[in-house]
Design goal:
This protein is mostly helical. It has four helices and no strands. It is globular, with a radius of gyration of 12 Å. The two termini are 15 Å apart. The relative contact order is 0.19. This is Acyl carrier protein. It holds the Pfam family PP-binding. It comes from Moheibacter lacus.
């Protein structure tokens, strides 16, 4: 699981062009939206694309997306449970 979280942090930073953020800055429990990393709705769409391309996961329900994208940990847990790639 720690390998998945590391990979996920790298992909989030690359996909969202977070130039001022390093993997060490992004903790497993840092909120991705709001007061944490401060991502917005456009970033959420990018994360949905990332899940689809990298892990074969399609998110259709926005409410489900809110839960999945809370932290790196919640994303990793969801990927572990639902990945097809």
């Amino acid at each position: 699981m720690s390998d998945l979280k590391q990979e996920l942090k790298e992909k989030i930073i690359t996909q969202l062009n977070l130039e001022d953020i390093t993997i060490d800055d992004l903790q497993d429990d840092t909120p991705l939206f709001g007061d944490g990393l401060g991502l917005d709705s456009i970033d959420a769409l990018e994360l949905i694309v990332l899940l689809d391309k990298s892990y074969g996961i399609k998110l259709a329900d926005p409410k489900e997306g809110r839960k999945v994208f809370e932290t790196v940990q919640t994303m990793a847990d969801y990927i572990e449970a639902n990945r097809t790639k």
